[in-house]
Design goal:
Elements lengths: L4 E6 L5 H12 L2 E4 H14 L3 E2 L2 E2 L1 H7 L5 E5 L6 E5 L2 E2 L7 H4 L2 H5 L2 H15 L4 E5 L2 H5 L5 E6 L2 H14 L6 H17 L12 E4 L5 H17 L1
Parallel strand pairs: 1-8, 1-9, 2-8, 9-10
Antiparallel strand pairs: 3-4, 5-6, 6-7
Helix pairs in contact: 1-10, 2-6, 8-9
Bound molecules: 2'-deoxycytidine-5'-monophosphate.
2'-deoxycytidine-5'-monophosphate binds next to helix 2, helix 5 and helix 9.
Amino acid sequence: MKKITIAIDGFSSCGKSTMAKDLAKEIGYVYIDTGAMYRAVTLYALRKGLITSEGIDFDKLREEMDSIMITFVLDPESGRPQTYLNGECVEKEIRTMDVSSHVSPVAAQSFVRTAMVDLQRIMGEAKGVVMDGRDIGTVVFPDAELKIFVTASDEIRAKRRYDELTAKGEACDFQEIKHNIQERDRIDTTRKISPLRQADDAIVLDNSQMTIDQQKQWLLEAYQKAAAE
Ligand code: DC
């Protein structure tokens, strides 16, 4: 079967990365979590004190963009890629509520998007890639052979995120998580540059009532069809 590009876009916390990761592993493709890249930039800004209660120092962040190196390294134990920021594994640190509540305004900046999109295109140029995010099918790889747009109700998404954080032992509040998801949806869909929207040729997957196994099967069939065409 020919190698294709698979773009998986959709709302926050609707299980995109789990299904994208599983598919990539199953078919031997490279998986790129583009949300992790925007999260790593946000973590960098937080650590450098560029994000305070006063706001975000975007001028300083723009100056520092060349000092931010983001890479993915396959974890031999889990077989899954881990996010590295300037050589340090930050997979856990980028998933905290602190990063989640600041990532959308950072990801809305054009200088941040340009740098990340350039990197994403390099990472995916050889095809054989599953990339998940918000603008993969519309901006990063508009010619992707398979585009999926994933959605689920905000109540269900908040519940999944709550369960995920609780399982990791992180203290969290359901209402705060739900509010954070709704707020990110609002910023992601209304921002001026590359807002989250369904590509005209994307297939919609509403997974509110689906199990992980059902999604896996659905996605595998969509891939087999697209790769055979
Ligand atoms: O998928 P995620 O929740 O880890 O993404 C984190 C944030 O990054 C989310 O608020 C939107 C933004 N993002 C983006 O703007 N473009 C992408 N391709 C991926 C994520």
